[in-house]
Specification:
Length: 276
């Protein structure tokens, strides 16, 4: 998961609304969002290579999502999978604060990560690279937040662009399909606004858009999540077909909609199913 924009306690009756893109190598196998056969209270996609997940909810209103911190010079190939941080929270009964304290001591063994973990009452951001941020590991106040592959609200062009569009849609009471349109924005940032994260300039350009297209890496799924104060969460996912959505590289300041496939998947308390 490489972009998460979320509103916490901004909309009455809806503590959490999130819109997210998962960016990954196309060859890495994963299942679409669905009820987990071995944990029927979890609704999430699943990484079929290393296990775990990047984003999910439970019937009780627990939510978690994760992004990697981009630091190629610090990456350790022997580090444990970060997706387990999400699945372990969803499968457990720790409060968000308890869970952060539970993982804090061993957080350094993982490559850099951002974890969002919450329930209907509390939402936390925790990063093993964010010790200097006073919000790290503490309950978040109400507001609209953005997270990519740096620390919370780092003003990368894609984050500031997505937050502004997301907030506008919330103010308008816009329908859900417009949030997916936001997530399909493939506009690349101008070079003068690109961050320097230790990759080549050409790769910085590719990674600067909300929706990423490249020959072997890009946006694999777009997700919109709503966690109401009463009732079950709703997670809708659109799985991307990179062959049809990335036939041509987007130009700077051009915008196109991605070709998306698969039906929306919604949790249904009466119809648990295993992931496809």
């Amino acid at each position: 998961m490489c972009l998460i924009i979320f509103a916490w306690k901004v909309i009455p009756g809806m503590p959490l609304i999130a819109a997210a893109n998962r960016d990954e190598f196309y060859q890495r196998p994963a299942s679409a969002a669905g009820w987990w056969e071995d944990r029927p209270d979890i609704y999430a996609g699943r990484d079929l290579q290393a296990g775990g997940t990047w984003l999910g909810v439970t019937r009780e209103g627990r939510f978690a999502a994760l992004t990697n911190v981009r630091a190629p010079s610090e990456k350790r190939p022997d580090a444990p999978t970060r997706g387990k941080l999400v699945s372990d929270y969803l499968a457990g009964d720790f409060t968000p604060q308890q869970y952060v304290e539970h993982i804090r001591a061993d957080a350094g063994q993982y490559n850099g990560f951002n974890l969002i973990a919450g329930d209907r009452d509390t939402l936390l951001w925790y990063s093993n690279k964010g010790d200097e941020d006073p919000r790290n590991g503490q309950p978040l106040g109400y507001g609209v937040y953005g997270l990519s592959n740096a620390l919370l609200d780092t003003p990368w062009p894609k984050v500031t662009r997505a937050k502004a569009q997301f907030a506008s849609l919330l103010c308008q009471g816009a329908p859900e399909e417009t949030f997916f349109e936001l997530l399909s924005d493939s506009t690349r940032a101008n070079d003068c606004r690109l961050p320097s994260t230790g990759v080549s300039l050409e790769l910085e350009r590719v990674l600067s858009s909300i929706f990423i297209c490249s020959p072997d890496y890009g946006t694999r799924a777009s997700t919109v999540v709503r966690v109401p104060i009463v009732g079950e969460p709703v997670l809708n996912e659109l799985v991307v077909d990179p062959i049809t959505s990335c036939q041509a590289a987007p130009a700077t300041e051009q915008q196109k909609k991605s070709s998306l496939c698969k039906l929306k998947l919604k949790p249904d308390v009466n119809s648990p199913e295993s992931p496809s």
